[in-house]
Specification:
This protein is mainly alpha-helical. The protein is built from four helices and three strands.
Length: about 80
């Protein structure tokens, strides 16, 4: 799998990036790992980075971690591009 980044470049999909981002936002490690694994099992070969982010946020919310999703979104709004 590969990921199309915001700048248009591509990189290999690294599930640990989902884990690290989710944990930094406040998710328990096991939940973050489950979300990364569930994304990794998808059959598509290419994703936009925004699709990975939206999937992760949706999974956090569906697993009862709304505050973590909000924390992640707040960081996204504040970080420089």
């Amino acid at each position: 799998m590969r990921v199309k980044k915001r700048d248009g470049s591509y990189e290999a999909f690294m599930p640990e990036k989902i884990v690290v981002s989710a944990v930094k936002a406040g998710a328990p490690y096991e939940i973050a790992r489950e979300i990364a694994s569930s994304f990794e099992s998808r059959s598509e070969e290419e994703f936009e980075s925004s699709a990975i982010r939206e999937y992760t946020l949706s999974e956090l919310r569906s697993r009862g971690h709304e505050s973590v999703a909000k924390s992640w979104e707040a960081y996204e709004r504040e970080k420089p591009r």
